[in-house]
Amino acid sequence: MLTILGKPTAKRGQFCDGVSRRSFLKIGGMALGGISLPGTLRAEKESQTGSNHKAIINIYMPGGPSHIDLWDPKPEAPTEIRGEFNAIQTNVPGIQICELFPRMAAMMDKFVPVRSLSDADGRHDAYQCMTGRKFGSRQPPGGWPAAGAFVSNLQGPVNAAVPSNVALMYKTGNGTWGQPGTGGFLGVQHAPFNLVGRKARSSPENMVLQGITLERLRDRVKLQKAFDTFRREADTSGLMESMDVYSQQAMNILTTPQLADALDLSKEDPEILARYGKSDETFQRDGAPRMIENFCLARRLVEAGARFVSLNYSRWDWHGPDGMNFPKSREEFPLLDQGLSALVTDLHERGLDKDVSVVVWGEFGRTPKINQNNSRDHWPKVSCAMLAGGGMNTGQVIGKTNRKGEYAIDRPVKFQEVFATLYHQIGLDLNGTRIFDTSGTPQYLVDQGIEPLRELI
C-alpha cells in the first residue's frame, strides 16, 4: 500500500484533505503496480470515450440499517414495531420518513425512497451492494465484476488523470464491510482504485511515505523513488505481472494535479463544505468511520472525471446486548440527513443532478419487532434504499411493505433492478451489451429479464 500523509494547516489543525493528523490517504498497492492504472490508460486508448460524462455515487452503510427507523416508518403499528421515533411529512404529499431526517424531508421531491428491496443475500458484507448479485450465485470464471468495473470497461476514463472506477472504502475490522469489489472477469485494470484504507493491526504496511503530501504528489523524483521501492517489494511478493509503456503514464496520474486537487478539501468552498457536517475519523468498532465529508469528496471526484465512486460510511449493526439501536440512531441519523441533503443540493446547484446518480443502502433490513435488547435483529426479507439525481423521476416512493414492515406487498425490488436503473441512466445498453468472460462465455450487466425501475426512467 502507498500511504500519503497530508500537510497540517495552521487554521484547522488538520491536513489539506480535511481530516486530522491521525487520518491518512492510502492508494492501494495493486493500483500502483503497473496493473490498475496502466490498464485504465490502455482501456482509454482502445475505447472511444464520449464527451458525455455521467457518473454514479454508491454509498454503502455497513451492517444493515433499519428500514423502519430510516425511511419506511410505521406510525400506525404497535409500539414494539414502530419504535421510538415519529414519522414526519415531507414536501411530497403522502411520503413520510423518520423525524430525524428533517432536511431530507424538506427536499423529498429530489429523492426516491425504495422501500421494497426483497432479495437481500443476508450476509454481512458489501458484495451485493457492489455487484447487485448474491454472493452464492453462480460465478463466471474470474468472478463477477463490481458495478464500477463494468462502467470502467464500457465507458473508459474521462481523462488520463483520474481512474474511472474509484473507491473511498475504508478497511474495516469486519473485512467484508470494506471491500469495494473487484474487476472480476474484466481484470484488475478495471478494479476499483481505492483511495483510503486502514493500517492492519496484525501486519505492517507495505510502504509508508511519511514525507509525501498531497501538494508534493507533483514531485516526480521523490514519487518515482517511492514507486521503485514499491515495485521491488511487489515483484518479490509476486503482486506485479508485468511492466510496459503504460506504467510510465500511470505515474502521470499520480503526479498531475487533477486527482490530488479533487482529494484536497482545503480547495473546497468552506461554506459548501460546512453544509456536509463535521467528519469523525474514529472507526465505529469494526465498521467504517463517520467521514461525512467523503460525500463531498465523491462529488469532487466525479467533477474531476470519475465515473463511479463507491464509499462506506459508519457502522449500522446495533442489535447486540448493549441495546444501542435507538441511541445510535439519534447519533447517526442527523449526520446522514445533513450529508445526503448537502450532496444532493450540491448536485442540483452545480447542474449535475441530471448526470450524477446517487444510491444509499445497506446489505439488509432489520426485524420489525424490537428484540429484548430494545434493538432490531437481521432481516433479509426486506430492506430499503434511497436514490437521487441521475435524471430520474424523483419525488416518489418505490414499493410498499405491509403494516408491520415485514415484507413487500407492492413492487418488490431486486438489487439488480437498482443497478439496472443506474446503468440505464448513465447510458449503458442492458440488453445489447455483452461482455465475454475468460472462458469466452457472453455475460450481461444484469441477469437476463432484469429491467430498470420503469417508474424512474
Question: Helix and strand layout, with pairings?
Answer:
Elements (H helix, E strand, L loop, with lengths): L1 E3 L20 E3 L1 H4 L3 H11 L8 E6 L6 H4 L8 H4 L4 E3 L6 E3 L3 H5 L4 E7 L9 H5 L15 H9 L9 E4 L24 E2 L12 E3 L10 H18 L7 H11 L1 H6 L7 H7 L3 E4 L5 E2 L3 H11 L3 E5 L12 H25 L6 E6 L3 E2 L11 E2 L3 E7 L10 E2 L6 E3 L4 H11 L9 E2 L5 E2 L14
Parallel strand pairs: 1-9, 3-12, 3-13, 7-8, 7-12
Antiparallel strand pairs: 1-2, 4-5, 6-16, 10-11, 13-16, 14-15, 17-18, 19-20
Helix pairs in contact: 2-9
Protein architecture, described:
This is DUF1501 domain-containing protein. InterPro entries: Alkaline_phosphatase_core_sf (IPR017850), DUF1501 (IPR010869), TAT_signal (IPR006311). It comes from Gimesia fumaroli. The protein has helices spanning 29-32, 36-46, 67-70, 79-82, 102-106, 127-131, 147-155, 220-237, 245-255, 257-262, 270-276, 294-304, 325-349, 415-425; strands at 2-4, 25-27, 55-60, 87-89, 96-98, 111-117, 165-168, 193-194, 207-209, 280-283, 289-290, 308-312, 356-361, 365-366, 378-379, 383-389, 400-401, 408-410, 435-436, 442-443. A seven-stranded mixed beta sheet has the order 6-16-13-3-12-7-8, sandwiched between helices. The chain is α/β, with parallel strands linked by helices and 457 residues long. 29% of the residues lie in helices and 16% in strands. It has a single domain (2-456), classed as Alkaline Phosphatase, subunit A, CATH 3.40.720. The relative contact order is 0.21. The longest helix is centred in the last third of the chain and has 25 residues, at 325-349. Helix 2 (36-46) crosses helix 9. Strand 19 (435-436) and strand 20 form a beta hairpin. It has 14 helices and 20 strands.
